[in-house]
Structure formats: C-alpha cells, structure tokens
Design a protein that fits this description.
single chain, alpha/beta, four-stranded mixed sheet, about 45% helix
Length: about 525
C-alpha cells in the first residue's frame, strides 16, 4: 500500500468523530526542552574512571570484531591494528575521535521551529520504536502494517513532546525492497519533525538521502552541511560490529548525517551480569563505533548511546524498568559525560498489555534517563513486550507523563505577583477560599497543566459519565487524532517529484536491503 493509496481510503471519513479543538490559554513549548534535574551518579568518580579505562583496555587489547572489510581498512588507515576480522583500537585513536565529534548538533526538521539541538542538558523524547507488531483495544494485536505506520506517525506528530520521528512500527505489508520509499514519503507528508532512516544498506540509504534532500529543496552542499535525518546503529554485543551497521556508520558520516550509536546489552545474556561490567562493555562498543564515524569524516554528527537492562534469569526474557535498568542508565550517563557528546538512553516495558506493570516499568525507566541526564530518550511511550509491540493506548497514556515532565522543564517563578501578598493572600479572610481572589481569576485558565487522558472528576461524576477507565479514554483520544488527519503544509510540486522518484525506482526494482 502506498501513502497515496492509504490517504485515498481515508478522505471520505475526514473529520468524522473528531473532537473540536479547544482554545488553550496556556502558552507552552514542548519542542525545545532542557533537563531541569541534577545528574545522579550510581558509581563514584574513581569507579567511573576505572570503567572508562577498562573500556579502552578492551578496545586496545581484546579488540572489536568488525565484519565489514572497508570498515577494517578505515580503522587500519587511522592507526588501528588489524588481525583478520579483529580490530584493535588504541586510546590515542579514540581520544582523537572524541575530540573531533561535535558536542552540540542542530538537527534540521522540515520546519525550522521543529529543529532540535542535541547536546548535554537538552532533552528530547521519541516514541517506542522498531516493533514488528501494533495493538489497540479495538483491533487487537497484529503484524505492523502501512496503516499502523501512518496512524502511529499521526499520533506522534500530534504531540509536541515527541520532538523526533522514531523508527515506529514495521509496515510488514510493504515489501522490504520498497519499504524505505513508503516510510520516507510518509514522514515527509505526515510530519515536519526530524525524520529517521534505517541503515539497511547503501542503496536504500542513498535513496532516502535523495528523497529527503529534494523534498526539502536542498543542494548537495546544504544537505551535507547539517543532519537532515538520522539513523540508529546497534552493535552486536559482545564486541561485534556487523556489515549493515558498519556501512550505516560510514554512509551517514560521509554525508554529514547523524548516527545514534546504541549497543544493546542485556545483563546476564550479551553482557556481564553486573551493571558495572555491562556498561563497561557497552561503553567500549560505543566508542569503537563513534571512532569509525570520525575516521570517515572528522566532525560528523554522532550521538553516544546505550540501552542496557537485565534479563529475567528464570525465563531469559528481557526485563525493563527494573532497578538494574535504572542503575545502568545512571552509569551510562557518567561515562557519556566523559565524552561530552549528546547521548541516548531508553525507557520501555516488558508488559504484555497497557496495565499497571507497563506504567510502572516505563516510568521507572524514564526517570532513570532523566536522572542520568540523557539527551535523547527513546521508547519513551507506547512500547510493550520488550519492543515486540507498540500500543496506541499506551502511547497516549505515556504521552501524558511526558507532557508533565515537559511542564517541569519550564520550572516556576516566585515573583511578587506569584507570591500574591496583594492580589491573593491579603484578599482572603481566615478560613476563606481563594476561588474568587484576583490572582485566581487572572490565572485560572492558564496556571495548571491540562491533562490529555487523566480524569480529575470525583467518583460520582465519573460514574455518571460511564465509569470509563484511562485505557478506554485513550482509545477515544487516539481515534480522534487519527480521524482529524492533520498534516503540515506540503509543497505539492515537491510531493509530485517525490512520488515520481518512487515510481521510477520501484519500476527499476527498488533497493533490497544488504546483509
């Protein structure tokens, strides 16, 4: 199914059941957030330094297995020692790479007001990503489809608290050699946020670069001067960088686009069972991948990343939102800050439905990221089953929490008007109330956060309204958003050129992923 085919099936239903937009008197900015919380450490400074040195020892003495021949040649040209597929990277090479990598990255979205600055202290959220399945209360759990991809994109575009487009859900009803055309066109037409591109081989990446460049009306030089899309690179823990991921690092660095390097280490499975051991290994793998980007193109935008949690030792299944997951995020923050680079961490849930377990796990993981000072928090909403499924309802209920975190980012003030000696406290007699105080009357429509899905009605009122729980309220909310079919303004001539390009490349056979 193409994006145009999907849209044509929806035009007859435009606006049906859509909730009328209410005018808010609150002025909020969830697009450029700063983390207001002090960094929290789990290890002492000496322990963290020893972990960093241990990671450098791993790279120099134990090495990384690099399956990509050209990547090994790049490492060799940069001074690394090569023995077959093993690459041994000295500290001087790593230090030079960290020094050349930019510490602040301006990510260019489709609209300038959507641009995102990634640096230590900034805060960006992404929805749950990369799941093969989608679920909601009305249609149940199912393989991800083109419809799911676009609807999920509509939902994440609707909420400003998601500042970047995530890898979302796999549209499995679109052939893999054509899927990158569908996902890129969908991102260009349904959102003007900073887009995502999978690294599934150079031909697909080059197609995506060309589509984004031309749709944005950029020259080659303008496209390469700043990141206009990003990818996520996962190492194969322990200590392996495979062919597609190495090629992705090379392609994105060569063209000045951003890679988020993310070793996915599970304590007791692909990493040591301890927090210290798992994060040390993850740190080594991240440094190796970051080094490759800088050997390709010094100054190429790259984001440090980690995703470390533990497994359930009874079943071997990944677990998220655990105390160990929280501690691992804190430890990752300590090591990321040694590089000075913006960095990515993750929330998430292993629950099978949007229930209290899912909420607890996601919030525990989220607060680990916030206390660790993560720049980008991925899987911040909607993720179930350890990433096998994204839930429409969970995206809505999690977005509520992210909105409240965003409110905390704005802080509060204590001016004379805020304290209210003249316009509030002095106006109310003992045992009186402040409902009619001048301060209250001036601020009642703007002072407090307006909930999306939470219901503050008392039990009697809630019962009279049908006793609808948060899950089912979330269903109505996502359905209203999808039915509204809100889109950013699109240059129709650019859209036509994009669709012509896709038709031409499809007729030529598309671009199969490379392995």
């Amino acid at each position: 199914m193409s994006v145009e085919e999907f849209a044509s099936t929806r035009r007859g239903r435009r606006g049906r059941g859509a909730k009328k937009e209410e005018t808010s008197h609150r002025e909020v900015n969830y697009r450029q957030l700063r983390n207001p919380f002090p960094n929290m450490d789990v290890f002492s400074a000496d322990e963290a330094e020893n972990m960093h040195k241990s990671a450098l020892t791993i790279l120099q003495d134990m090495g990384m297995r690099v399956l990509h021949e050209d990547a090994r040649k790049i490492f060799a040209a940069g001074g690394a020692k090569i023995d077959g597929e093993m690459v041994y990277i000295g500290q001087d090479i790593v230090d030079a790479a960290i020094a050349s990598a930019p510490k602040s990255i301006t990510c260019c979205a489709g609209a300038r007001e959507r641009d995102v600055i990634l640096e230590l202290g900034s805060l960006v959220f992404q929805a749950g990503a990369g799941a093969p399945h989608a679920t909601d209360l009305e249609r149940g759990r199912r393989p991800g489809s083109a419809r799911d991809y676009i609807e999920y994109l509509q939902l994440t575009h609707h909420f400003d608290v998601f500042q970047m487009v995530s890898p979302q859900v796999e549209p499995q009803d679109v052939d893999i050699h054509l899927r990158h055309y569908f996902t890129t066109e969908a991102q260009m037409t349904w959102s003007d946020k900073f887009p995502f591109t999978f690294s599934r081989g150079t031909p697909q990446v080059m197609d995506c670069f060309e589509m984004i460049r031309d749709f944005r009306g950029l020259s080659d030089e303008e496209f390469q001067a700043a990141p206009h899309n990003y990818t996520i690179i996962n190492t194969n823990s322990p200590r392996t960088l495979d062919i597609p991921m190495a090629q992705g690092l090379i392609d994105f660095a060569k063209y000045g686009q951003m890679s988020i390097v993310t070793p996915f280490t599970l304590m007791g499975a692909m990493a040591p069972i301890t927090v210290a051991g798992a994060i040390t290994l993850s740190h080594a793998e991240a440094l190796a991948a970051i080094t490759l980007t800088q050997l390709v193109n010094p100054g190429a935008p790259v984001c440090y990343g980690t995703f470390t949690s533990n497994v359930d030792m009874k079943s071997g299944a990944p677990a998220f939102g655990t105390p160990s997951h929280f501690q691992a995020s804190l430890a990752a923050g300590q090591l990321a800050r040694k590089t000075g680079l913006p960095w990515r961490s993750a929330a998430g849930s292993a629950a099978n439905m949007n229930d209290i377990q899912a909420a607890n796990e996601n919030q525990m993981g989220l607060w680990g990221c916030l206390m660790a000072g993560a720049t980008v928090v991925i899987h911040a909403a909607g993720w179930l089953e350890g990433g096998l499924t994204v839930s429409y309802e969970k995206l809505i209920t999690d977005a509520e929490v992210l909105n409240m975190v965003a409110e905390l980012c704005a802080g509060t003030t204590a001016t004379a008007d805020d304290i209210g000696l003249e316009n509030a406290i002095s106006q109310v007699e003992p045992q009186g109330h402040f409902f009619a105080a001048p301060q209250t009357m001036a601020r009642y429509n703007s002072q407090f956060y307006e909930p999306v899905v939470h219901d503050y009605a008392n039990f009697g009122t809630w019962t009279e309204r049908g006793s609808v729980d948060a899950n089912h309220r979330a269903t109505k909310i996502w359905k209203d958003i999808v039915a509204a079919e809100a889109k950013p303004k699109i240059d129709e001539s650019k859209l036509g050129q994009l669709q012509d390009f896709i038709a031409k490349r499809t007729a030529e056979g598309g671009a199969p992923p490379e392995s």
